[in-house]
Structure of DNA-directed RNA polymerase:
Amino acid sequence: YNADFDGDEMNLHVPQSHQTRAEVQELMLVPHCVVSPQSNKPVMGIIQDTLLGCMLLTQRDTFIERDLVMNLLMHVGGWDGVVPQPAILKPKPLWTGKQIFSLVLPKVNISRTNITHGDADDTPMSVSDTKVVISSGVLLRGIVDKKTVGSSAGGLVHVTWKEYGPRRTDELMSRIQVVVNHYVLHRGQSIGIGDTIADDATMKDVIETIQKAKAAVKDLIKKAQKKELTLLHGKSMMESFETEVNRHLNGARDNSGTSANKSLLKSNNIKRMVSAGSKGSFINISQICACVGQQNVEGKRIGYGFKKRTLPHFVVDDLAPESRGFVENSYLRGLTPPEFFFHAMGGR
């Protein structure tokens, strides 16, 4: 319910007649609310740990030994007692994660791409296993992520709902979570400071990008002071100046973020969460590793709160990025006191 304790209230309604109770049960029972009439797509799906687990379990190089397979089979809801044939027999029997995942699926057919699928990859069998194919309840290929088991239209949850109804959809989500969470528990999944550190060459690139943007802004300030700035259509000198400054500073954040993102390996734990769709985004990676970027209050750079300055530590009428809320450090490197204060202003 996303409730917090700053005055939020909740109300309880108690239906009392048999007619009302029956009506409310039909309308409000959770499995009956999986697909929302608002946009005719599910509002529930697999999230967080389980979503990341689905991605890890269904990767091509996930092989599971007999002892863990036996443990996982004990967690498969409605298991028929048949142990599937291992995909690899010698030197020892190994089952693929896709085989285990298939055990909890209903007999549905789905064909779709996942989050990391590139438009250029139009071959029937994708190199990086980004095309998901489920045929008669068997996952044949593809890494399962948010686009398949999340609350997306035409995903696994939606198709199961349409083919088998609310109860089977409810069972599917519960079964996926029990099996996948048990796998994640055994496999282990962690994240540490090491996952946020980019290599030296990347950091050099990031610093250069930010310095270039700051130099460009310095140039803009000189032009504005000499009234040589090219005005944008329908904007005053100051508005044009602010727009241009924002363009340069946001560009610096995005470009430095892109190089930081490229330097992280596929096995990086932040990158894993982003590519599974379970947590985080490109902007989080760039702020953690490269540069937090411009802080805004009501859509503008930090304004003058004191007499013609943002804080007592800056000179009067300072238009430079630092004094108007540009945070050039990353969360990893740490913010300076003025940066921290501006960041706190932007947050609330």
The domain at 193-347 is CATH 1.10.132.30 (Topoisomerase I; Chain A, domain 4). The longest strand covers residues 131-135. The first helix runs from residue 18 to 28. The mean pLDDT is 94.
